[in-house]
Design goal:
With 344 residues, this protein is an all-alpha fold. It has one domain: Rhopdopsin 7-helix transmembrane proteins. It has twelve helices and two strands, in the order H-H-H-H-H-H-E-E-H-H-H-H-H-H. The chain has a two-stranded antiparallel sheet with strand order 1-2. Helix 5 runs parallel beside helix 7, helix 5 packs antiparallel against helix 9 and helix 7 runs antiparallel to helix 9. It is globular. One of its GO terms (molecular function) is G protein-coupled receptor activity. This is G-protein coupled receptors family 1 profile domain-containing protein. It holds the Pfam family 7tm_1.
């Protein structure tokens, strides 16, 4: 019997919900990874951060499955073996490593957007820097999750993985630290940075701010491209905030709840919101970013059947759009090395 409920209808409902969320998460983010790896014009530093975010989101879904989908499909052995399996597979700890990595990655993306827009002549993000940033993100995520890894154990009484804190205040303190470090801090950082960036790109007074915007963006074409990229990552960040703050808050409340029922309910809702957040991101990329949409079409269409080719300019076919886009890329290459050719 599942630890969270004895109702078969509830178990089936929750398993179905988490099955849908995890399937959407894994399939969508795998497609994002394939697009960035497969198409040369997608292999730019910013997209490498998006790739890292997609990997973190996949990790969230993969290790939610054993605890909330396949809970009746296995029985863990007692003793140390069961505890080790809990820590590494069925306890969900690796999901939380992915959740922390995604929060830190979005914070780095916000910093990149800020410096790229506000100080375009300064040092920009490069592939070499990403090779340093990404391992640091994952190292910090692992270190941050060490307390959970150390306290997780297999409960022979409840037949499930449970946290075993030496003192009750430790569990409550850990949940509060989670709320601050992976919730409020990155979200407030993103809000502050994007507020400056959005003002610079969209709301700077046309008369008084022309010289400032021109110095920052270099041309109308570059401004248009930077707006598109910023719109995508800003949307992802705001959805992250909308999902994670309630989820993290409920996670904290679950540790302070006096009744086991409310504690379990809040915990399940918080896990569902984090999983939903990871599943939504690929749809945001496709909905907001034209380049992702075009490459998805190429990926799913049979050779020769797709009318729209992303990298080829065919005279007489949508020439206005292609010419405009080509002009933007030339302007972008002339003014900065921030974005890659033909990125939209």
């Amino acid at each position: 019997m599942w630890y969270y409920t004895e109702s078969k209808a509830t178990m089936i409902g929750l398993a179905t919900m988490f099955s849908i969320l995890t399937a959407m998460d894994i399939i969508g983010n795998v497609i994002v990874c394939v697009l960035i790896v497969k198409f040369k014009d997608m292999r730019i530093p910013m997209n490498y951060l998006i790739l890292n975010l997609a990997v973190a989101d996949i990790l969230v879904a993969l290790f939610v499955v054993p605890r909330f989908v396949l809970f009746n499909a296995y029985i863990l052995p007692d003793g140390m073996t069961g505890t080790v399996i809990c820590k590494l597979l069925t306890g969900g700890n690796l999901s939380w490593i992915g959740a922390v990595a995604s929060a830190f990655t979005l914070a780095v993306v916000a910093l990149e957007r800020y410096y790229a827009i506000m100080n375009p002549q300064g040092t920009q993000l490069t592939a070499a820097k990403v090779e340093i940033i990404v391992p640091v993100i994952w190292l910090l995520a692992i270190l941050f999750n060490l307390p959970l890894l150390l306290t997780d154990r297999y409960s022979t009484k409840h037949k499930t993985c449970m946290e075993n804190w030496p003192e009750e205040w430790m569990a409550k303190s850990s949940s509060l630290i989670w709320l601050v470090v992976t919730g409020y801090l990155p979200i407030f950082l993103m809000i502050g940075l994007y507020a400056r960036v959005v003002y610079q790109l969209w709301f700077l007074d046309e008369d008084d701010g022309d010289s400032t915007r021109q110095a920052s963006t270099g041309s109308t074409g570059v401004l248009r491209i930077r707006r598109r990229i910023t719109k995508m990552v800003f949307t992802v960040s705001m959805v992250f905030a909308a999902c994670r703050i309630p989820a993290q808050t409920m996670y904290v409340i679950s540790y302070f709840s006096r009744t086991q029922y409310h504690s379990d309910l809040l915990h399940i809702i918080s896990v569902a919101e984090v999983t939903a957040n990871s599943a939504i991101n690929p749809f945001i990329y496709a909905f907001v970013n034209h380049r992702f949409r075009q490459h998805i079409k190429e990926l799913i269409c049979c050779p020769g059947l797709c009318k729209t080719k992303v990298d080829a300019f065919i005279p007489g076919q949508d020439s206005t759009q292609d010419a405009t886009y080509t002009t933007e890329v030339v302007q972008l290459q002339q003014t900065s090395q921030e974005e890659a050719p033909r990125y939209d």
